Amino acid sequence: MPLDDSNRRRTLALYLLARVAQCAYNSAKSKNKFHLWGSYWRHGDSLLFSLACAQVMYSFVMRPESLPKSYQDFIQKTGPVAKPVYKAVRDCCRGGPVDVAYISAYLSSRGKLNDVKLEEFPSIIPCSIIHPDTDSCLGHNAKAASATFRKTFPLYFSLTFVPFVVLHLQKFMDSPARTCWLALKGAVRSTSFLSAFVGIFQGVICVHRKIASKDHKLVFWVAGALSALSVLLEKKARRGELALYVLPRAGDSLWYILVNRHLLPDVKNAEVALFCACMGGIMYYLEYEPDTMAPFLRGLIRRFLASRISNPNPPTSRSASYTYLQTLDAMNKPKLEESKQAESSSLEKLNLESISGL
């Protein structure tokens, strides 16, 4: 997606904003100037991830247009619920008519049309429509989790293995078997986290349908918050990174919704100004307080930017006369040094001879 797209620019600006906020907070906390309530909790990063996921999953179900298309496709392919079902749930929560023909075509393709009673204004979309292939909610959730594991394990293995090789090539050459084992273990851990996320989210939706008779849009916000607790399966070091990855998406979605509801002004190119300010903050903390930045981000910026800034390339466009003069100076420099040394030695001799008694 090109950078002339405002949505892409807003996403990048919010990502940098999250990183600048992290640096500013770490800086203030290290100086004992400011810290948030609960910042010393052991699982504060998991709480931040939970809140961000709650906004993202709510937006996916109720306001999918507030999320990037690629993000929508990833959630849709990872989860077990079909797109027509989400549309029916969305219409039901808003109190509008459900597209019965659309749902009927979906159920007919699954061979379950005669087993479900369809209404134009239902109070709640039942589990028989959400997972028509099985009557057991528990079996459906277990199947969804295992299917997610199978679909996403190759992706997570490549995302884990490639950084091991690229960033630690020498270690990989010294012990390739150990590197592969660490990558495999990390991929299994990350895939288990995502599988548990999908299973918990679907489980909360099914439980709500067992105990309630009316659907509500906030159910999906709560389901997103609870399913995000599966991040506890991840390593402690990765939880904060995952939270800062999802947080810009949640902020982007919230920004879109608030502007759409006229609760925030729609300022043209506001994301450009935000991006410039945040980039300035990032470079400031990189120069003066690098310890406040995440190690991965600090190393990434220094690898691709800082080395070029501190060691700029010499200009390559030199004329022939300039090259000739440079060569001539290099040839004459040793001769000048020899003549200076000869003059200084003769002066020393004269000074010694002028002393009486020598």
Provide a descriptive summary of the structure in words.
It comes from Citrus sinensis. The protein is an all-alpha fold and 358 residues long. The protein is 72% helix and 0% strand. It contains 14 helices and no strands. It has helices at residues 6-30, 44-62, 69-78, 83-93, 100-109, 127-130, 137-167, 169-174, 176-211, 218-227, 236-260, 270-288, 295-310, 320-353. The radius of gyration is 32 Å and the shape is globular. The protein starts with 5 loop residues before the first helix and ends in a 5-residue tail after the last helix. The relative contact order is 0.13. The model is unreliable at 307-322 and 346-358 (pLDDT under 50).
Short description:
With 358 residues, the protein is mainly α. It has helices at 6-30, 44-62, 69-78, 83-93, 100-109, 127-130, 137-167, 169-174, 176-211, 218-227, 236-260, 270-288, 295-310, 320-353. It is 72% helix and 0% strand.
